[in-house]
Amino acid sequence: MSYVSDSSSLNKALRQQYLSLPQGNFCQVTYIWIDGSGEGLRNKTRTMDSEPNSIADLPEWNFDGSSTGQAEGHNSDMLLIPVRMFRDPFLLDPNKLVLCEVHKHTREPAETNHRNQCNKVMEKFKDLHPWFGMEQEYTLLGVDGHPYGWPRLGFPKPQGPYYCSVGADRAFGRDIVECHYKACLYAGIAISGTNAEVMPSQWEFQVGPCEGIEMGDHLWMARFLLHRVCEDFGVVATMDPKPMTGNWNGAGCHINVSTVQMRAEGGIEHIEKAIKKLSKRHAEHIRVYDPHNGEDNKRRLTGRHETSSIHDFSAGVANRGASIRIPRQVGQDKCGYFEDRRPAANCDPYAVTCEMAITCMLEEEDDTHEVE
């Protein structure tokens, strides 16, 4: 079996004794941000004299960017700008978790701050009321990098019995999944479901529908909660798009997209127009669908294991081997949404939703694909 971390074996009852101590009117606020890798999350906590009621009550803060891959040592201060606040499921009320944008000392957004541009784009298209839902797949590992629950030598039985499974020989790590789900609900994240995935030790949770910029905010915070829950259990959650080579499914972050026009009667016409636009910008989308300009997705989008080929664009009704899937019910109702199955599990949801909005929601006569 996989190795769990030493810290997970510390006395949790003793820990709870301290966590249950009263804290008066003070409030612990944990600031959370995306680091220079574009994938990792960092956090630190401060004390406030009272419970903040909104983002406006939260001060800006700073951190050492030279230790997160975001600045040089001789000029390392980076700014944390609070943008969305959630309840803290670990320290409980009145304590808060706060998602932050990272800015340089010049107040320009950091290179991995894709939220800043995404917010501008979503503001431009707010009258279309763009809804997004993202399906985050991930794999549980021991701290040694071995898939959690897999035999130390050899492999588990081939794929087939694990998807949406039940049973000790098929579902590995359900405690983590259920704790994460409850933590998201407590925090106020728009989590809409979860299930075991095709590869053993692989799971998925869904966030949305969220409108505009909320999609990225809620998914990033849900990822933080997942990593934090896994820390308590002594295991690791990886968003690697292909954590195991061979005849095993990879991990994606499928995105479901709709506008008010697509959701209205006869909206299939607008869905088809959007798909046509996407077909013309396949390469551009692949470049932003993982943090390494498509290099991660090369290992996953092979045309096998319920994926399309990274080299080709395709679309179809109820086709999980296509780039874009129109759900069968949408095909029957002639309105609703479409699913882009290409984003990798480690994608930045801000970059993905931003690119999706620019491609699908700009008027056809505007071919610049740039938004100020």
UniProtKB/TrEMBL annotation:
Enzyme Commission number: 6.3.1.2
Alphabetical keyword list: ATP-binding, Cytoplasm, Ligase, Nucleotide-binding
Name under which the protein is recorded: Glutamine synthetase
One Gene Ontology biological process: glutamine biosynthetic process
Key word Aminoacyl-tRNA synthetase present: no
GO CC term, one of those recorded: cytoplasm
Organism per entry: Labeo rohita (Indian major carp)
Main location: cytoplasm
Database matches in InterPro entries: Gln_synt_N, Gln_synt_N_sf, Gln_synth/guanido_kin_cat_dom, Gln_synth_cat_dom, Gln_synth_gly_rich_site, Gln_synth_N_conserv_site, Glutamine_Synthetase
Family indicated by similarity: Belongs to the glutamine synthetase family.
Pfam families per record: Gln-synt_C, Gln-synt_N
Coiled coil residues, start to end: none
Catalytic activity field: L-glutamate + NH4(+) + ATP = L-glutamine + ADP + phosphate + H(+)
SUPFAM superfamilies to which the protein is assigned, alphabetical: Glutamine synthetase, N-terminal domain, Glutamine synthetase/guanido kinase
Subcellular localization: Cytoplasm
Domain GS catalytic, residue spans: 114-372
Gene3D superfamilies reported for this sequence: Glutamine synthetase, N-terminal domain, Glutamine synthetase/guanido kinase, catalytic domain
Annotated GS beta-grasp domain residues: 27-107
GO molecular function terms listed in the Swiss-Prot or TrEMBL record: ATP binding; glutamine synthetase activity
